[in-house]
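We were asked to recover a plausible sequence for a given structure. The inputs and outputs are reproduced exactly as logged, with field labels preserved.

PROBLEM: sequence recovery
POSITIONS: 484
GIVEN STRUCTURE:
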C-alpha cells in the first residue's frame, strides 16, 4: 500500500461488487465414482492463507462461516444450510505472532496503553479458536502452483518445511519502514520497540526550550503521526516538514483536501513547514538531532520521525509472471490469479498486494476477504458437484477517496461527497481510537464461532464506517451464503 494508503481507511466502494452475479461454466469435478455402491472418503479441503492482517483474517473467518453452512459474518444474517457445508482446514501463515492494528500505528507509537491494546496474540483471539483454523508464525518463501505445494519458513525454529494445499490465498500485503509500523514480529519485542519510540517522542516534553519532535513527510502517514503526538502530548513541540508546496502531494486528491488538512493540522498545535526538504539528519547525542534543510538552514530536534513510508510488496514468494513491475499481483475481477500459472482458479489474491484501482485501505482489504471467501466456497461446491455453476462476486473499479485522522478531528473526501471535516467525521471513520473498535468488531474477533454474531442492523452500522463516504442506499447486495 502507498504510504498514505496505510492510513486512508474505512472508505471504499466495497461491497458494491456484490451487485454483480456472474455465472461461470462448471469445471469438471475431480471426484468420480466407478461403482454406485462405492464409498469415497472426502478429505478436508486445505486452504493456505499467506498473511493474517485485515484481509487474510476476513477471508478465513467468512470462509469458516460459509463452510459450516452459515451466512458470512459480514452479512449479519442467520440461518444454516447443511448442503453448503464443507470440511476444511484453513491455515494462516503470518510473520507476526498476533493481530496488529496497522492503521493505529500513530497511536501505538505515541501511547503505551494503545501499544498494549493494538497487538493481540493469535492464541488470544476467540474467533480463531476453532479446530478448522490454525495460525502458524512464519513466512511463505515459495509456492509451486502446478503441484500446489508451498515452502514455509517457521519463525520459531527457523526450519523450512513444505505444505500441500488445495487453494492458496495471497494476503501478505506490503512491507513498510520502521517508525511507521512495527518491525518486530513478537508482541514482547514489539512493546520494547514502541516504548523506545514513545520515549523519543517525549524528549524535552513540557520544557520551554525543548527541541521537540520533527516529523518528516506530509502524506497521510506524516499528518497522522504528527497530529496524534501533538494531541497525546500537548506540551510537546511538534513540527512537520514537507518538501512540496502542499500536503498529500503524492495522492490523486483535490487541493481542498490538502488545504483543509493543513488547517486541521495547525489547529492541533503542529508547526508545518512546506517547501522544505531535509537533506540530512544527524544525531549528535541522545536527544539532540541536527537537521540540514535544502535552503541551507539547520534545525534541531529532540527526536526525528521519518514518515516517508516506502512500501514494498511482499510477493517475492510468487512466480514472477504473476506480478507487475511493482510486485503487485495481477488478478481477474473475481480475484483469481490471471491465467499465467497452472491452476489459476485455485489461487486468489487480496488486499494491498493486489494490483487494483483506488487508494489502498483496510476496508477494501476486508471486503476483498469476503469476496475471496465467497468465490473460493463456490469453487469447492462446484468441484464437489453441489452446485452446477459458479456465481462469483466481482470487484468493481474503485475511485480515489480518503479519510484522514487529525487528532480529535478527521477529514474525508470522495468525488461524490466532496470534502468534510470535524469531530463527527472522526467519530464516523475512526471512533476515537484510529478504528480499533471498528475493525475488531467488524471482523468479530472477540466472538468464538458458536457465539451469536452481529445482526444486520449492527453490521449495517459498521458498514457505513468501513465503506465509502455515502450511505449505500442504492447498493444492491447479492445474496451470499446459505438460502434465507
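RECOVERED SEQUENCE:
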Amino acid at each position: 500500500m502507498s504510504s498514505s494508503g496505510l492510513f486512508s481507511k474505512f472508505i471504499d466502494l466495497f461491497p458494491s461488487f456484490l451487485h454483480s452475479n456472474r455465472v461461470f461454466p462448471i469445471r469438471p469435478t475431480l471426484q468420480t465414482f466407478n461403482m454406485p455402491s462405492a464409498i469415497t472418503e472426502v478429505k478436508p479441503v486445505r486452504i493456505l492463507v499467506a498473511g493474517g492482517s485485515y484481509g487474510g483474517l476476513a477471508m478465513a473467518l467468512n470462509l469458516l462461516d460459509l463452510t459450516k453452512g452459515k451466512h458470512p459474518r459480514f452479512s449479519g444474517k442467520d440461518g444454516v444450510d447443511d448442503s453448503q457445508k464443507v470440511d476444511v482446514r484453513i491455515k494462516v501463515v503470518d510473520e507476526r505472532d498476533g493481530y496488529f492494528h496497522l492503521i493505529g500505528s500513530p497511536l501505538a507509537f505515541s501511547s503505551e496503553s494503545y501499544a498494549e491494546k493494538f497487538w493481540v496474540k493469535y492464541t488470544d483471539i476467540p474467533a480463531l479458536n476453532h479446530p478448522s483454523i490454525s495460525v502458524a508464525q512464519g513466512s511463505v518463501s515459495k509456492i509451486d502452483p502446478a503441484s500446489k505445494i508451498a515452502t514455509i519458513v517457521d519463525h520459531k525454529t527457523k526450519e523450512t518445511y513444505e505444505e500441500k494445499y488445495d487453494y492458496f490465498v495471497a494476503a501478505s500485503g506490503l512491507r513498510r519502514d520502521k517508525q511507521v509500523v512495527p518491525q518486530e514480529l513478537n508482541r514482547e519485542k514489539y512493546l520494547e520497540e514502541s516504548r523506545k519510540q514513545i520515549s523519543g517522542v517525549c524528549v524535552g516534553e513540557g520544557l520551554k526550550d525543548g527541541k521537540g519532535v520533527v516529523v518528516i513527510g506530509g502524506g497521510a502517514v506524516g499528518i497522522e503521526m504528527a497530529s496524534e503526538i501533538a494531541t497525546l502530548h500537548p506540551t510537546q513541540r511538534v513540527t512537520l516538514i514537507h518538501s512540496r508546496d502542499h500536503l498529500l502531494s503524492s495522492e490523486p486528491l483535490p487541493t481542498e483536501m490538502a488545504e483543509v488538512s493543513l488547517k486541521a493540522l495547525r489547529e492541533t498545535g503542529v508547526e508545518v513547514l512546506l517547501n522544505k526538504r531535509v537533506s540530512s539528519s544527524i544525531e549528535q547525542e541522545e536527544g539532540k538531532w541536527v537537521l540540514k534543510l535544502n535552503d541551507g538552514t539547520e534545525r534541531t530536534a529532540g527526536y526525528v520521525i521519518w514518515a516517508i513510508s516506502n512500501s514494498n510488496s511482499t510477493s517475492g514468494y510468487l512466480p514472477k509472471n504473476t506480478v507487475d513491475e511493482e510486485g503487485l499481483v495481477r488478478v481477474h475481477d473475481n480475484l483469481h490469479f490471471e491465467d499465467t500459472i497452472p491452476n489459476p482458479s485455485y489461487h486468489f489474491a487480496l488486499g494491498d498486494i493486489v494490483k487494483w484501482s483506488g487508494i489502498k485501505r483496510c476496508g477494501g482489504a476486508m471486503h476483498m476477504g469476503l469476496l475471496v471467501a465467497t468465490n473460493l466456497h463456490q469453487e469447492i461446491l462446484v468441484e464437489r458437484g453441489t452446485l452446477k455453476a459458479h456465481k462469483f462476486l466481482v470487484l468493481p473499479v474503485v475511485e480515489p477517496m480518503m479519510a484522514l485522522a487529525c487528532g480529535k478531528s478527521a477529514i474525508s473526501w470522495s468525488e461524490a461527497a466532496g470534502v468534510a471535516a470535524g469531530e463527527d467525521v472522526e467519530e464516523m471513520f475512526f471512533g476515537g481510537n484510529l478504528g480499533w473498535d471498528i475493525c475488531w468488531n467488524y471482523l468479530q474477533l472477540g466472538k468464538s464461532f458458536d457465539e451469536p454474531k452481529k445482526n444486520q442492523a449492527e453490521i449495517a452500522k459498521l458498514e457505513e464506517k468501513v465503506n465509502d463516504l455515502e450511505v449505500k442506499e442504492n447498493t444492491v447486495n447479492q445474496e451470499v451464503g446459505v438460502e434465507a
